[in-house]
Amino acid sequence: MQITIKRIDEDFLMEASNDTGNTLLMDGSESIGGHHKGFRPMQMLLAAVGGCSAIDIISILKKQKQEIESFEVVVDGDSQKEDTYSVYRTVDIHFKIKGKVDLDKAQKAAQLSHDKYCSVSKAMEYSSQIQFRVSVNED
């Protein structure tokens, strides 16, 4: 796997592309001269852990013939400054599922993702306490 990152303005706006041609924009925070035109790298980490688990959970539930109508993930991270860098000490993930989905199956799928399958959460577990909850057909 290879990612290429190119600077596209005179400040911090960059475009990352993968080996299949997909792209995303990254930018620095406004406090250092960024312009809110892309995800900040630490935000991408939260998106990555939520997306990785979402793929796992959807895949497991599809194999169990659960009928997912919508799937949303809300990820909250509490970052803490350490010397010259920041780390997420806690990450809270809420999987919001609608459809003909058994709550117990969804919770088990989320637990499997967290404990066994999600490479991003496994990489983050050394510095972050990751908690999750699952809701099915709630508003």
Notes on the structure:
The protein is α+β, with helices and mostly antiparallel strands. The protein has two domains: 3-32, no CATH class; 41-136, K homology (KH) domain (GMP Synthetase, Chain A, domain 3). Helix content is 32%, strand content 39%. The strands form two sheets. A three-stranded antiparallel β-sheet has the order 1-2-3, with no helix packed on it. Strands 4-5-6 form a three-stranded mixed β-sheet, covered by helices on one side. Helix 1 (41-63) crosses helix 2 (103-117). The mean pLDDT is 95.
Number of helices: 3
Shape: globular
Span of the ends, CA to CA: 39 Å
Radius of gyration: 17 Å
Give the tally of structural domains: 2
Per the CATH scheme, the topology name of the largest domain is: GMP Synthetase, Chain A, domain 3
Order of helices and strands: EEEHEEHHE
Mean pLDDT value: 95
Largest sheet: 3 strands, antiparallel
- Label the CATH architecture of the largest domain: 2-Layer Sandwich
* Class from helix and strand fractions: alpha+beta
CATH level-four homologous superfamily name of the largest domain? K homology (KH) domain
CATH class of the largest domain: Alpha Beta
Indicate the low-confidence ranges by residue numbers.
none
| Adjacency order of strands in the biggest sheet | 1-2-3
Keywords:
6 strands; 139 residues; alpha+beta; three-stranded antiparallel β-sheet; three-stranded mixed β-sheet; globular; GMP Synthetase, Chain A, domain 3
